[in-house]
Amino acid sequence: MVRILSKIKIYLTKYKIGKLIILFYHYVISIPLLWAFALKYLLIKKSIVKPIFYENDYVFNEMKYNKKSLSRFGDGEISWIFGESKGSFNQKNSKLLSERLKEVIESKNEGIFIAIPHFFESDLKHYSLKRRISRNAHLASSNKKWEKIIDKERKYADALITRIYLGLKNTDSKKLFASWKSVWEDKNIVIVEGEQTRFGVGNDLLDNAKSVKRIIAPSENAFSKYHSILETTKRHSSKDTLFLISLGPTASILAYDLAVLGYQAIDIGHLDIEYEWFIKKAKKKISVKGKYVNEAGGSSNEELSSDLIKEYSFEIVEKI
Q1: Contact criterion met (CB below 8 Å) for 287 and 297
Q2: What is the average per-residue pLDDT within 33-61?
Q3: 26 DSSP 8-state letter
Q4: In the predicted model, is pLDDT for residue 4 greater than 90?
Q5: Core-most of 43, 59, 92, 196, by most CB within 10 Å?
């Protein structure tokens, strides 16, 4: 059903009347629902679970010096755990996906940080108003799910450690991006990503890495090919390899499985897109030349230069 609705939306965007229908749905249904949940949050905020978190500096140091891995869980992963996803990345709900995500988030493996969003405190002064409203609406609708998952006795990393520019204020994004760059300085990187993700292409995010290779996995419903993805990554690994994975909920599981096997793997999410927005000083989610941005309408109408495409293609070692 979700896949059908996604195709209908794509079809509607091709026509003027279709775009008007989408706008009608957005302003008459989506926004009122958002505000209704945001108001509900005010009634329940005192009862919301309060997890314990590591400081970001500690997480960065552990990833840099002790080769700790990172698996992140956000609103999407929670919806997949409970089989209620609305189809982000066109990833189908499945019993196996739910079971694997639940296995990872409950793991106590010391080689990997389990990360959830550090947004459970009521006063988030470093968030923009728009981001706080979205957070409020999410917790109002999903707090009970988080309560079932969160272990109050353990510490978590912040899943938003890759969301360090847009929607923030009084935050030194430049310093945080520098901290990320220090994690892969002089390291051999293997990126596992979808078609047109092109992590680090066209900017200097990975310029200090020793080497960069890429494995291109399916952009949509990637978990259906999980066995092939895992086996392919293992073929292109060594103990000094750092895996950077940008592949929706599949990244959360793959980072964990690789960490269990003794490799360092980081579920890197949208960090590259955040960096592009940071460079451009964007005030809202915008398309990025030559890259797929699911939060800004999908693929860009502009392509990268032929030299960049050639360099990117040379880095690809395998496609799945």
Answers
A1: yes
A2: 88
A3: I
A4: no
A5: 59
